[in-house]
Amino acid sequence: MNSEKSKAVLCNEIINNSIGSDEFVIWNRIFPRFACTNAVKELAEVAGAYWLLDAIASHVICSVPRLKNVCPELHCRMFELSFWDLHKFQDEAHGWVLMGHDGNIKTDPDNKASPELGPVHQRIDVLDFPLQNGFTVYCARTHFNDRNGWVLMLPSEY
Fold first, then answer.
1. What's the pTM value of the predicted model, to 2 decimals?
2. What are the residues whose beta carbons fall under 8 Å from the beta carbon of 141, sequence distance 6 or more?
3. Taking a C-beta distance cutoff of 8 angstroms, is the pair 102, 78 a contact?
4. What residue numbers bound the domain in which 18 lies?
5. Measured between alpha carbons, how far is 100 from 121 in angstroms, rounded to an integer?
6. pLDDT in tens, 30-58
7. Closest Cα to residue 117, out of 139, 89, 94, 95?
C-alpha cells in the first residue's frame, strides 16, 4: 500500500471510529480560544492538515463576525455552531473549497461542493489531501480551560 493510500485509510479510520474525546487540545498558541478533540488532532497529523484547523479558526474570528451586518441571525447561528466542509469543486480536477455554513448548505451525492457556496468560503487551488471526498468539521462554542472558546470536532463526536 503506498503512503498516500495508507494516509487515506488512516484518515477514514479516524473519521469512522471516533465517538468523542475526554479532553480538548489547543493545537496552536496563536488561537488560544480554539481547541480540538483528540480525533481532529490525529486527523490533522495524519493528513498534514493543521493548516485546515488554522483556516477554520481564522474564519470564525474574522469572517463570521462580518456576517453580523448582512444577516444577524446567520451570524448568531454560526458564532455558536458552524459546519466546515472541505470538498472538491464539481467541475475541476484539482480545485477545492473550504465552506463554512450553519448547516443549511447542500452538497451533491458525491460530496462535492455545490456551485452555490456557503456564506463563508475559501477556494484552495492546489491541495495534496489524502481524502478525495473531503470531510466535515464542526466548530462549537463551549467553555474549556476556564474561558469561553470553540472546539473543533468530527460529526460523530457531536
1. 0.86
2. 79, 80, 81, 148, 149, 150
3. yes
4. 3-157
5. 6
6. 999 999 999 999 999 999 999 999 999 99
7. 89
CB 113 within 8 A of CB 87: yes
Between CA 78 and CA 86, with CA 80 as vertex, the angle to 5 degrees is 50
Can you say whether the dihedral through the CA atoms of 101, 102, 105, 111 is positive or negative? Answer: positive
Beta bridge partners, 89, equal: 113
Q: Which three cell numbers stand for residue 74?
A: 446567520
What's 123-142 look like in SS3?
Answer: EECCCCCCCCCCEEEEEEEE
90: Cβ contacts below 8 Å, ≥ 6 apart: 108, 112, 113, 114, 115
Number of domains observed in the structure of the chain: 1
Is the distance from CB of 14 to CB of 42 less than 8 angstroms?
yes
